[in-house]
């Protein structure tokens, strides 16, 4: 019998951009019906390689083979036509449409010149059952949680006939229970003969779900088709970044008695009068990191936006350094020393087409070194950007490149460097290590530890429960807009924290 061709074979893939080689002679082979994990720090070339495989970019050199046949992808439509689908880290769903409408959008079945909703509904139900995705086609997407939304994204690519699924950092926004469900779905997809390319920097997850593993470092393949039964997370970390796997942890306590932020009875209502932040009270002292755990959509975003002045409080007070700032505008809060790492760096942290030195000024455009009197101080901003690039290890060809040219980890280090400049007293850090590699993650943890030791008060919001447990002095749980538990970071497990986040308070001190 002839040898079965692999589902995907990339050979000698090279892709250059001005000032940087993103991929250099990358080889990757993925067998049919397996879960293949691709690891590498941000900037290693994973995203570029996946964009090439999905037709979003074309390689300068090298070849792509699907099921043994050489192909050239000029657009994602070409990749989809060959059975390659991609689920992006940032979901691309329309909240005001149903699951069915989202799944068929752009690929609507027709009968007699009209959309055949009955046929689409039947097919979606069959696929949902076959692959264990358990999605109701008739519910609005806006009513779904993160895990369900991800399953809708998977259904979208399956509906279009994908036999190879690229999952880009699929667990970045999931709690442990949802991760377990996703891994169950992946096993079902594999059992049905589909091939999954799993992109992740969470090495324990990679080892638990993958059939084989490849590693990229600095744009090239350093290991391919590793057996997860024969490699450790420590070894993978060494292959990725040349160092041991870092762990989130705080050392000796630096917590003082000086309260920097006091939130008392804070309530924020929707336009319909429903509380999304419901009588929240908490305090953060200088030298303290206060963690906030919650499934996304339970009020943590609205809470931090209200602290920042982006939203208005309907009841309660916010006191900062002894001053009532409840009704201060955002600019005044920023100028008073409140730093902010937003949860979505692309939408709220950067102007992607802007140069690095221009992004350095965002949120700080009224303060030195970005201005001199009423004028923008380009020289000052450029000089300080060069300092941030050096001190925070932002890997870039120069400060004039657009922020979009940087990897996710380097974009995040630029934001952290910007926010830590100007002697802040309070840092709101929302998902500071989301979607970044183990090296950048370790660097940001160290920046937080240094800031804490210097007396900064920090509010940390994260979907990474080990990060929350390891990096928090005090840890609260938010559910449906209310603080429902305070747990001991020294004793709580990720499973117990996940249970508290979903309403089953297990092992938490309320």
TrEMBL record:
GO terms for molecular function: ATP binding. Residues 8-243, 261-505 form the ABC transporter domain. Keywords: ATP-binding, Nucleotide-binding, Repeat, Transport. It comes from the Bacteria. PROSITE patterns: ABC_TRANSPORTER_1 (PS00211), ABC_TRANSPORTER_2 (PS50893). The keyword ATP-binding applies. Pfam families: ABC_tran. SMART domains: AAA. The keyword Nucleotide-binding applies. This is ABC transporter ATP-binding protein. It comes from Actinomadura vinacea.
């Amino acid at each position: 019998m002839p040898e079965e061709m692999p589902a995907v074979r990339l050979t000698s893939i090279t892709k250059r951009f001005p000032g940087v080689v993103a991929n250099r002679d990358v080889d990757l082979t993925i067998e049919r019906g397996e879960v293949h994990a691709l690891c590498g720090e941000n900037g290693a070339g994973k995203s570029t390689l996946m964009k090439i495989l999905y037709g979003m970019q074309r390689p300068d050199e090298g070849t792509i083979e699907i099921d043994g046949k050489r192909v050239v992808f000029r657009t994602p439509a070409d990749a989809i036509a060959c059975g390659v689908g991609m689920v992006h880290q940032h979901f691309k769903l329309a909240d005001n449409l149903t699951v069915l409408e989202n799944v068929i959008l752009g690929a609507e079945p027709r009968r007699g010149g009209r959309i055949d909703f009955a046929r689409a509904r039947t097919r979606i139900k069959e696929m949902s059952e076959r692959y264990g995705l358990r999605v109701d086609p008739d519910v609005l997407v806006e009513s779904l949680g993160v895990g369900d939304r991800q399953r809708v994204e998977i259904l979208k690519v399956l509906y279009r006939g994908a036999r190879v699924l690229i999952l880009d950092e699929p667990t970045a926004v999931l709690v442990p229970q949802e991760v377990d469900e996703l891994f169950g779905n992946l096993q079902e997809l594999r059992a049905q003969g589909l091939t999954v390319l799993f992109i992740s920097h969470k090495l324990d997850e990679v080892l638990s779900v993958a059939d084989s593993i490849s590693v990229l470092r600095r744009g090239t393949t350093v290991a391919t088709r590793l057996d997860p039964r024969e490699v450790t997370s420590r070894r993978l970390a060494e292959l990725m970044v040349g160092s041991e796997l870092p762990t989130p942890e705080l050392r000796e306590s630096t917590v003082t008695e000086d309260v920097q932020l006091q939130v008392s009875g804070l309530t924020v209502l929707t336009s319909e009068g429903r509380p999304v932040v419901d009588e929240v009270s908490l305090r953060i002292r200088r030298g303290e990191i206060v963690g906030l755990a919650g499934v996304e959509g339970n009020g943590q975003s609205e809470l931090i936006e209200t602290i920042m002045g982006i939203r208005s409080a309907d009841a309660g007070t916010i006191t900062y350094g002894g001053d009532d700032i409840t009704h201060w505008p955002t600019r005044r809060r920023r100028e008073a020393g409140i730093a902010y790492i937003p949860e979505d760096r692309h939408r709220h942290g950067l102007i992607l087409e802007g140069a690095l030195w221009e992004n350095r000024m965002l949120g700080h455009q009224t303060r030195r070194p970005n201005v001199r009197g009423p004028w923008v101080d380009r020289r000052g901003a450029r000089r300080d950007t060069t300092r941030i690039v050096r001190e925070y290890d932002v890997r870039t060809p120069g400060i004039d490149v657009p922020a979009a040219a940087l990897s996710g980890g380097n974009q995040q280090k630029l934001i952290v460097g910007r926010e830590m400049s100007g002697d802040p007293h309070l840092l709101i850090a929302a998902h500071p290590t989301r979607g970044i590699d183990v090296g950048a993650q370790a660097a940001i943890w160290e920046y937080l530890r240094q800031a804490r030791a210097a007396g900064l008060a920090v509010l940390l919001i994260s979907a990474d429960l080990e990060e929350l447990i390891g990096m928090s002095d005090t840890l609260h749980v938010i559910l449906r807009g209310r603080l429902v538990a305070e747990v001991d970071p020294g004793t709580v497990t990720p499973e117990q924290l996940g249970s508290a986040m979903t309403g089953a308070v297990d092992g938490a001190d309320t």
